[in-house]
Write a structure and sequence with these properties.
Number of strands: 7
Strand order of the largest sheet: 2-1-5-6-7
Helix content: 40-55%
Structural class: alpha/beta
Radius of gyration: 22 Å
Number of helices: 9
Order of helices and strands: HHEHEEEHEHHEHEHH
Shape: globular
Oligomer: single chain
Length: 251
């Protein structure tokens, strides 16, 4: 007995097959884009690679300087920071003034980039204003970050921009000034990091997932890496971070 399929049924079958194929292709494309964005394991790129990086971010970025772990020690010129030593990521960040290490002048990050044309800039944001940025949403957070990124791109187009994951906080973090508990704050940081990765993918940038080596089995900052406040890092932590960066080179 022969079974005859009507044209509508055949068309439906073809549509389902094509849809499935299209979905598979989209998934592969998405995985490829993510794989390209995330900096994977490489051979040790050496101190020369670390010396080519400029670091901009929050207080945990500034402490690369105060802990003396970069070339030049506490006099390193690789950390661009404000007078306070920290920055918040919001719509005003691109206009915030940093101390340009080579001259001591106050200028915007983009002005500094235009002046020095760095080979690489590593941006690290996430904890400062985390609760507020979560409440404002993904689109707001990405627009703030993209505003800063584009201000650098406009004046230093050859600079390779790396977006580093925000670091987790430890279980003993003082939450007096936060409206959430520590576990929720780390969940917020993870969410912000996922937004940052997505931004790196969409903008053709690179994402440095340093937070993965700083977490304990429960997702908190490893207790032995923090100075006692649950947030700021010991010199040993920066040694691990720089080792991670050296073995996850932007090629």
């Amino acid at each position: 007995m022969k079974i005859r399929l009507s044209i509508p049924i055949i068309a439906l079958a073809l549509t389902l097959a094509l849809t499935s194929c299209s979905k598979d292709t989209t998934d592969v494309d998405a995985q490829g884009a993510m794989s390209e964005a995330i900096l994977g394991v490489t051979e040790d790129s050496g101190q020369g690679y670390i010396d080519s990086l400029i670091f901009v971010g929050e207080s945990t970025t500034y402490h690369l300087k105060s802990r003396g772990v970069l070339s030049g020690g506490t006099e390193t010129q690789q950390v661009w920071a404000s007078k306070s030593g920290t920055l918040n990521l919001d719509m005003s960040t691109k206009n915030a003034k940093i101390i340009y290490p080579e001259t001591g002048e106050l200028m915007t990050i983009s002005h500094a980039a235009e002046r020095s044309q760095p080979e690489y800039i590593v941006f690290t944001f996430g904890l400062n204003g985390a609760v507020q940025n979560i409440s404002k949403g993904e689109e707001y957070y990405k627009s703030c970050y993209l505003s800063l990124i584009n201000s650098v791109r406009a004046v230093s187009p050859e600079t390779r921009i790396i977006l580093q994951s925000a670091f987790p906080v430890a279980s003993n973090m003082d939450m007096t000034n936060y409206s959430v508990d520590v576990k929720t704050l780390n969940e917020y940081i993870d969410t912000i990091n996922s937004w940052t990765l997505d931004l790196a993918i969409s903008e053709g940038l690179r994402y440095l997932n340093t937070s993965e080596i700083l977490k304990d089995g429960s997702g908190y900052l490893r207790y032995e890496l923090q100075v006692g406040d649950g947030h700021h890092l010991k010199t040993e932590a920066y040694t691990e971070i720089l080792e991670y960066i050296r073995t996850h080179e932007y090629k």
